[in-house]
Structure formats: C-alpha cells, structure tokens
Amino acid sequence: MELKEKILSSYVAFENGININSDLHEIRTKALQNFEKLGFPTKKLEAWKYTSLNSILKEDYSIFPDREAAIELADVKKYFIHEIDSYKIVFVDGKYSSFLSSTTHDGKDVCLLSAAFSKDKYKPVIEKYFNKIAKQDNLTSLNTAFASEGAFIHIPKNVEVEKPIQIINFNTGKENAAMLQPRNLIVVEKNAHVQIIERHQNLNSNAVLTNSVTEIFTDTHATVDYYKIQNDNENASLVDNTYIEQQKESTCSVHTFSFGGNITRNNLNFYQKGEHINSILKGITIIEGKQHVDHHTLVNHIEPNCESHQDYKGIYGDRSTGVFNGKVIVEKEAQKTNAYQQNNNILISDKATINAKPQLEIFADDVKCSHGCTIGQLDDQALFYMQQRGIPKKEANALLMYAFANTVLESVKIPEVKKRITQLIANKLGVNIGFEL
C-alpha cells in the first residue's frame, strides 16, 4: 500500500482514538480532503523543483504511535541546551514525556496543545489562532488532519518570560519507520517577550519522517526569538513548516541551523500586518555526504514602514545539495519598506550542488529592497597566508568558514546557544578551535 493510501485509511482510527470537539473535527476533515486532492509534493511543482521526496516516501511508516517508549535523561541530556535553566516541552515518539519536561502555568502557559484542545479555558485562544495562518498546501494539510500533540505557548501581554523554552521531539526507533506530525501553537501578546529553542532528534538508525507545523502570532510591540537546531542522523528527514503573523512594532527573528539529516525542507513564512515591523531570518547550513537541505522563505510586506532581513550561509561538501528559494513580496500599500536578502554559499567539493533563487516582487514605488547570491570556494590566497604563519591547512580552512558564518552567529542572543552552535560547527568541520565567536 502506498503511503498516501495508508494515511487516508488510518484517519478514522486516528480520530476515534482522540478526544476532539466538533469544530476541530471539521477543520481536520477539510484538511484531509485537501491532502487527498493534492497528495505529496513532486518536482513538477515549482516550489519543489529541486527537492524530491520520492526516496523517503517509499518507507512503510507507522502513521501514529500508540505508546511512549521510555528513555533515560542521561541518554538524551546532550541534546538539550543543559547549560541554562529553561522550560522544556519534550515528546518521545510523538507522546508527551512528563519525566523529561518542565512546564508552567504561572503567569503564562507553557504546556501541551492537547490540553489546550480539551480544556474550556483555552477555547478562545484556540478558536482565534489555531490553523488561521497555516497554508492549505499538501503537507500542512496533512499535519492539520492528524495534529493531536505539540507545544502550546501562550504569553500574556507585558510578560517577559524569564528563561528560554525548549521544544524537543525524540524518536526512539521502536518502529522500523515512523512518521511524526508535531503541531505547535505560539501566541505572544502585546509587549511580551519569549525565547524558544526547537530540536528534532532521532535516537536510532531506523527511518523517521517528521512533518512539523508551527504557527506563531506576535502581537503589538512583542518580541520573539526562535532558534531551530537541526543536527539529526542520516536516516532522519524533516519538513518544517513555520508560519508567523506579526502586528505593528513587533520583532520576530528565526535562526535555522541545519547540520544533519537526510532530507531537510524548511518552509518559513512571515506575514507583516502592521507598521514598523521587523522580521529577521538567518541560517547556517553545513552538510556533507548525500545530505539535502532546502530553505524556502517568504516575507510578505503588507503595511508601510517595515523591515525584513534575510541572511543565509551554506557550506556544502561531498555530494550534498543545497537549495535556497527566498521570496520577498512588497504590496502596493507597503511604502517605505526596507527589505534585505542575501544568500552566500561555499562549495568545498566539486560534486556538491547549490540551487539558489532569490526573488523580489515589488508593487510599491518608494522602497529600499536588495537581494544577492554568491557561490564560490575558499580564498586560496588567504589559506596560503595563514599557512605561512604556522596555521595547519585544516584549521585555516575552518577559521575561514567560521568567519564566513559569523554574520549569522553574531545575532544569536542566547550565549549558550551560540556556544553550542559554535561547537557543532567545529565538529562538522572536524577541528578543535580554542575560541568562541
């Protein structure tokens, strides 16, 4: 049985196994019908021209888990940013792990989406925000149809969350192949501030396909700092769909660090619905082997006097493939827009590939917009200069790559995250450099 048919035939059993209200049932049913019509994306679609899912869709995935596998903290501690005190929302094989988590309802809600679905006090938030900005495309619709668990974060107005929130999804490999579909809803009200770190991690060599959807609502003068750490094993594939709606005078930044996995597709969409908004999208990709990472970004400037800044760096070795498809849309009313988009790439192998497509669609006439893309190799003269001064070639290469990535790292606001990413970069480059950027 093909995966699509297996998913469709599993839906009735899935709904019978969860407690949902009639409104959610209608949302799920429409989403399933949409997925049934669209199916999985193929390279015939322009947005998926350079990324094929065929190889990973051949697996016989378990569609939804029926039990939680037990894991010990000592076995997974290294995947947390454990140097800092933080709230934690942890899922194991799609199921909430109370043992590994640390949630709160003290002045804010850092808890489970399933709880928000089932309790009346959260109903107004769910009705106002759930599935309101997520696209009705194939994979987002698939997630909506099967969404039952994920993180629910609600920060009331004027609240600055005193410590970061970590959202971590583990797959234990108890199934020969598993398909996970976490759904996160994050609502940050007026003048509130939150920092969030997200990670997906496979703990086994068995195949896993994660189809994740996150909706983020940033209200007036609110600030959201979001960090995605992607450093999974070669049998893990991830499609990450993130949708962000910003109101006036808000700031939202998303940093995406892609260092591992089989196929990784990041769909990041910003919608600016007010004036004096700042949207920040930054990323570092370092991959090798036959790994594939695809960054697909959209910033929709709807109102005047707003800014967006995109800066993506990629380092590709062996037979790896990178894709960057960044689109900026400036509507007719969005005068005085300042939009910046840059994608720089280094190929350290003759067999590595990068497909870059920066795009601007501008319908206003009083704007400042720029985009650019570079693809090249390390500077041989700089390498020679460093080697002449006693720096071994391997370390010299690493230093140049660190400098290349520094424009992204310097904007990371959590020192412990910056330190962890620096170490991950050093590990990817196979060096040990005794300093931090």
Automatic annotation (TrEMBL):
Residues 175-404 form the SUF system FeS cluster assembly SufBD core domain. InterPro entries: Fe-S_cluster_assembly_SufBD, SUF_FeS_clus_asmbl_SufBD_core, SUF_FeS_clus_asmbl_SufBD_sf, SUF_FeS_clus_asmbl_SufD, SufBD_N. Belongs to the iron-sulfur cluster assembly SufBD family. Residues 23-167 form the SUF system FeS cluster assembly SufBD N-terminal domain. It comes from the Bacteria. GO terms for biological process: iron-sulfur cluster assembly. SUPFAM superfamilies: Stabilizer of iron transporter SufD. This is Iron-regulated ABC transporter permease protein SufD.
